[in-house]
Amino acid sequence: MNFDLTDEQEMVRDTFARFLDDNSSGERVRAALPSGFDPALWQGLAELGAFALRVPEEAGGLGLGLFDAAVVMEEAGRTLASGPLAEALVATRLLALLGGQDDLLGKAIGGEAVVTIAMRDVAEFGRQWVSGGLVAEAVVARKGNDVVLIAVPAEARVAEENLASTPIAEIDLAALPATVLGSGDAALATFAAGLEEWKLLIGAALSGLSRAALVLAAAYAGERKAFGVFIGTFQAISHPLADLIAEVDSGKFMVWKAIRAIADGDADAAAQVSLAGWWTAETASRTVTQSLHTFGGIGLTTEHDIHLFNLRAKAWPLAFGDPQQLLAEAGRRLYGNEAASLPDVGDLPIEFDLGEEARAVQAEIHAFFDKHVTDEERAKFHYSWEGHNPRIHKLLVENDLAYLQMPKDVGGRGLNAYAVTAARDAFEEEGWNNPVAGVAQMVSLIMHRFGSDELKQEVLSKVMSGDAICSLGYSEPGSGSDVFAAQCRAIPDGNGWKIEGTKMWTSGANLTDYVLMLTRTNTEVAKHKGLTMFIVPLKADGVTIQAVHTFMDERTNITFYDGVQIPDSWRLGEVDGGARTMAASLELEHGGGFAKVQKVLVEEAVELAREIQAPGGGKLIDQPNAQTRLARAYANYLAAELLQYRANWVQVEGKTNLAYGPMTKVFSSEKFTTDSRDLLDLTAPYSLSKRKGPAGKLNQAYRHAHGTTIYGGSSEVHRSMVAEKGLGLPRSRQ
């Protein structure tokens, strides 16, 4: 897996970034108005080789890949470059591939002439809006069975006020002279592939634009005060921005993933192109609106740059038409067998493959379940603690498949984050996704690092052998996600301790042997400094376990501790040092989100849609509305997976981590919730049933999804972490 550019690509990006910073500043963008075209900028881009990027070397170009062009377009988007750059990149490539226009191609590469593309078939839409039409001397277009070059004289290019003052123009292309560049299937496929390339290039530009707008908003929120405090401390300001940075990053990665999918020949590559175009357009629209809102009234003034981002975010993608068309197109490509011509993308360094170790452990897991698990046992599998099967858990331990991410030096398998992610996917496919092993390895790691020899002999050995399992005792009735507000007391008692208090959401306590408990040992210091961690036996005198049932078909518990005696040797770490001890569990944090269950959700919805009879004949899956909604859920799953992969990658490679794990968690849990609701609606009333099969699984997914935004830290807590670490906003919680 790799999210890094090559050294050469970094150099290209830096070169264009420096040039654009100097020549496409807010001042320069304003100076280019009202035409929205900067001739000096255009010439400078030509001198840097921008218009030769995608032209093959044999035609006088640089012959670089689509990914290289996307890197440049991201910088162009960040700086709101004034001119139809994405369209020109496609047009010069088309001129080179179709041939016969060497003189014009040379002028276009050299910045002496602007050549653009028409989005619609001229045979059907003779008069149409053309991006860059105000300054273009020629337009490459489809006209029926031909691909043509249409010369556009100056008198046909009429300026018209428009939303963002870009050089768009409505031109009667059918009335202008046209030269045939190619005819038939091959030529039409080449042109169609050019339009697919444009979707990815404009998507890259929009991702750069969106991030730049967020950076401006975050910086302003960190310096503007209201009511005596920085407005970035208000969650109403910081949390929407935190949500959007996840959407912006995932949009960028969706562009990358689509290019990778084309290179790999993936069956879903064409759909991913459509989704990348739709996602980045939608995200840019919402991002610039929220960013402008962050500025308040000043954001409405023409003196501030943020309004330029707002207008360009709409102007660039709408040259194609309604972005929702791209989502519908993705639906047809995914579920309606619609084919598409795709460009040759060339080489690219980005890789989303989890690797051989990941594939090997997946095969090992599937072989284990085939060999050891009966159909009767499978029927009782459940995502919660209630799915625990002691026999299977013990066998997983014996086959080195339980403690996969736990380091080898403490008895685990020591897999890297990629293989752990793959393993989780394999367990999900088998239906074995309860939290028992995950919690056991977390507790075991803490006991290894902070436990006494006596504790390791009496408890750790049992947990590591699979003969005992553990729960987590963090939350309390009055504190929820604020674990540092714990009030359950550990009181010194001779050579040991006495536990007094209550813990809430002690899931699995009715099944487990021990609980890893965070207790209050000092009330005279800051709340996070007065905590100590212990292992507490759940079968000891003084422990009462009361069931709490959820509508998610799971049982959790409230647990009461009345003078529970434990020896000091069962303490973990220093007295009042519980926060540091608890931090050891973060070593097992690999950015896990809910992409795996989102994927299953989509698959089950697709299966049910293939079964449901639609009004008027056919199946629900054949309906455009169904295809569109399924495509949206697929996009959300894909985005969540890419965010998770990024979190895995930074952990494995030791890169700077800007709260990528929390970002993955909050994004995927929120999308899981909205998609489970929408797909339940789509497949109603069949989805109301709990019957075995896809209907029952969709029903369960809807109920399950609601808990994912709460347990493991609520979405609000994670949004605050993302806002602070990912956007540099001031701390929003005390």
Automatic annotation (TrEMBL):
SUPFAM superfamilies: Acyl-CoA dehydrogenase C-terminal domain-like, Acyl-CoA dehydrogenase NM domain-like. Keywords: FAD, Flavoprotein. InterPro entries: Acyl-CoA_Oxase/DH_mid-dom, Acyl-CoA_Oxase/DH_mid-dom_sf, AcylCo_DH-like_C, AcylCo_DH/oxidase_C, AcylCoA_DH/ox_N, AcylCoA_DH/ox_N_sf, AcylCoA_DH/oxidase_NM_dom_sf. Residues 195-332, 600-725 form the Acyl-CoA dehydrogenase/oxidase C-terminal domain. Its cofactor is FAD. It holds the Pfam family Acyl-CoA_dh_M. The keyword Flavoprotein applies. Residues 6-85, 356-467 form the Acyl-CoA dehydrogenase/oxidase N-terminal domain. Residues 472-550 form the Acyl-CoA oxidase/dehydrogenase middle domain. Belongs to the acyl-CoA dehydrogenase family. This is Acyl-CoA dehydrogenase. It comes from Novosphingobium anseongense.
